[in-house]
Structures are given as C-alpha cells and as structure tokens.
Amino acid sequence: MDWIAWQLCDSAFPAGGLAHSGGLEAAWQAGAVRSPAELEQWLDAALRQAAHGAVPLVAAAWDVDASKVPFDSRSQPDSRSLAELDAICDAFLLNHVANRASRAQGQALLMACARTFEDVAGVRQVTDEMARAVRDGPMAGHYPVVFGVICKALGLPARRACEMFLFLALRGAVSSAVRLGIVGPLQGQKLQRKLVGLAGALVDRCIDTPADDIVQTAPIADLLQATQDRLYSRLFVS
C-alpha cells in the first residue's frame, strides 16, 4: 500500500499535474505574488481552497462502491453516484481555466492508472468503466472524483487519499513557484515543510464535509487564474 502511495505521489508519475500552476503563473504576472512572503500567503490560500473545495469530493468518491454500480445511485441510496459527484464538481468550477484543468488532470490520472495498475485486481474494471463514462457521458472526469475512486480501487484508505490529494496540491504549487523563479528549490522546500501542519489540520476539518457543502475560499486567486488564457507568454496551461 505504501509503495503504491509513493508511486502516485512521485513527480515522475504521468498524471499531468506538472503542466498546471493552479493560477500561480497568472498571479505572478499580475504582480500579486512577487516575494517569498507573498508566495507563502498564496500557498496557504491555495491549500485551504483545495481542502474546502475538493477534499470532500475525494472522500465522497472514495465512499462510492465503484466495483458494483459506478455511475448509478439507484442501488446506493445512502451515497452519491460518481456521476452526481462529478456534476457537483463541474458546477462548482465556474472558472473555465480551473474547470478545464480539473478535467485534464482527472482524465490523465485515469489513463496513467489504467496502464500502470492494470494487473491490480479491480482497477482495470473501474478505470475502463470510468473511461467509458467520460467518453460517452455522463462524466467529465474531474480530478478530485477520479482521484478518490482510484485510491479506493488501489486499496488506499480514505484519509490517506485525502492527505495525498493535499500533498500533491501543495507540492505542485511549490514546484510551479520554483519553475517560475519566484523562489529557489531550497526556499520552496522550506515553505512546503512549513505548511504540512496546516495540510493535516485541513484534512481533519474537511474529510467529513458533505459534497454539497464545498466552498470557494480564495475568490481572488480564482479570478486571477481565469486570466491564464490571456497571458502574452505562458509556461503552464492553467
């Protein structure tokens, strides 16, 4: 189980996350993030947003028994179907850049896990059915939903899945900052280490939040991210 978790968190795993800055590039070009202190504020806000806006979806998707009826809630009256959770995420992400990035990351993760873990019992069925649902409807394949389902299929506990999700969000933002030249590699690692306590507390706070109660906690960052497509030059796609 630990080896699988480490592999999913490895930057070499081709899930598409390194192509996205989560709006940091747009904020940097707009002058909203220029120094290590401002970057720390941005990372704090981004981490809180990922926790309150996505972790409940990761946990809810993990809760669905995808091996039986992945996309139909009629036989699962006590839980949301994956299609419903995916629709909630789609409606929540009004920012077109964030919505597109979530779809792209979710579908990339789905494809990477289908190829990498095809010999793991149960994973092939789940990934094949989800890929079919994304291709033909009714799912868009948003990242938090796919992440929760894949972690469940791989035998990872719900809390570990939520912790990994926030770790990847934080690591991705720090990596983006380093590649943009806002901080150096060691400064970035120091910031990441400084925020891990907050990440753990956010998992505790948000893991049991109902999917209907996800919220936007960083509206300014969301507005800045929406300008990504209008940047004159871009290193990232979101």
How would you characterize this protein structure?
By secondary structure, the chain is an all-alpha fold. The protein has one domain (34-229). It is built from 11 helices and no strands. The protein is globular. The model is unreliable at 73-78 (pLDDT under 50).
The total strand number stands at 0
Mean pLDDT reading: 90
Principal-axis shape equals globular
> Separation of termini?
31 Å
Broad structural category:
mainly alpha
The total tally of domains equals 1
Radius of gyration: 17 Å
Largest sheet: none
Short précis:
With 238 residues, the protein is mainly alpha-helical. The chain has helices spanning 2-9, 24-29, 36-53, 55-63, 82-92, 96-116, 123-136, 143-153, 158-180, 185-206, 219-225.
Please write out the topology:
Blueprint: H1 2-9, H2 24-29, H3 36-53, H4 55-63, H5 82-92, H6 96-116, H7 123-136, H8 143-153, H9 158-180, H10 185-206, H11 219-225
Helix pairs in contact: 3-9, 3-10, 4-8, 4-9, 6-7, 6-8, 7-8, 8-9, 9-10
Overview features:
238 residues; mainly alpha; globular
